[in-house]
Specification:
Mean pLDDT of chain A: 92
Shape of chain B: globular
Structural class of chain A: mainly beta
Radius of gyration of chain B: 13 Å
Helix content of chain A: under 10%
Largest interface: A-B, 24 and 27 residues
Mean pLDDT of chain B: 94
Strand content of chain A: over 45%
Oligomer: heterodimer
């Protein structure tokens, strides 16, 4: 059974820092992987979707990598801003259904 | 713009009552999903549907049911609400059966069962 783990559970950093969020999964035979952002009391917003054949995907200050052989994905946020404060969730596809990690709660303070 | 909406956004009910949560999407997506989100468990799949008249059980389906009478709507029913069903419920949709495109999420329904 696929399990998805995100470490750390919470992270607090000063504005301007570059940071890395980690996601690991137990079954390396995954399909695609998706990173989401969730603001308090809100729904999920898709950030990046990495196809299983890709190693990286970039959008603005965000870069997500995927290493299937080691069962890991990372989300890199460059030059963090207070507006980046949110919970970040990774999810792996099991055919067309998502299996979620428990998230990393990020706080960026001025 | 196309969107996915959920109603109500907040609901308080009593143990044993039947509750229905609505989900409506205007993308004309084939796939629709219901998840629940609980502290320490992340989001877990309750039920999903690949199209009209199709429904399937997810990881945590006990005590829940869904029906799909049209493409746009997938209501979630709690047959007899229990305190363990206090949670935040999210509906999502995606375009194709078997596809791995982005899933689009609604804003969620916060349910409290007393």
């Amino acid at each position: 059974k696929q399990e998805v783990t995100q470490i750390p559970a919470a992270l607090s950093v000063p504005e301007g820092e570059n940071l890395v969020l980690n996601c690991s999964f137990t079954d390396s035979a995954i399909y695609n992987l998706q990173w989401f952002r969730q603001d308090p009391g809100k729904g999920l917003t898709s950030l990046l979707l990495i196809q299983s054949s890709q190693r990286e995907q970039t959008s603005g200050r965000l870069n997500a990598s995927l290493d299937k052989s080691s069962g890991r994905s990372t989300l890199y946020i460059a030059a963090s801003q207070p507006g980046d404060s949110a919970t970040y969730l990774c999810a792996v596809f099991n055919t067309d259904k998502l299996i979620f990690g428990t998230g990393t709660r990020l706080q960026v303070f001025p | 713009d196309a969107e996915i909406t959920q109603s109500p956004r907040h609901k308080i009910t009593e143990t044993g009552r039947q509750v229905t949560l609505a989900c409506h999407q205007t993308w004309n997506h084939n796939n629709m999903f219901w998840y629940r989100q609980d502290l320490g468990h992340g989001l877990r799949l309750i039920h999903y549907s690949y199209g009209v008249q199709d429904t399937n059980k997810g990881e945590v389906s006990d005590g829940y049911s869904v029906s799909r009478s049209n493409t746009e709507d997938l209501p979630l029913t709690l047959e007899s609400a229990a305190s363990s069903q206090t949670s935040v419920y999210f509906c999502a949709s995606s375009p194709r059966v078997g596809g791995q495109e982005t899933q689009y999420f609604g804003p969620g329904t916060r349910l409290l069962v007393l």
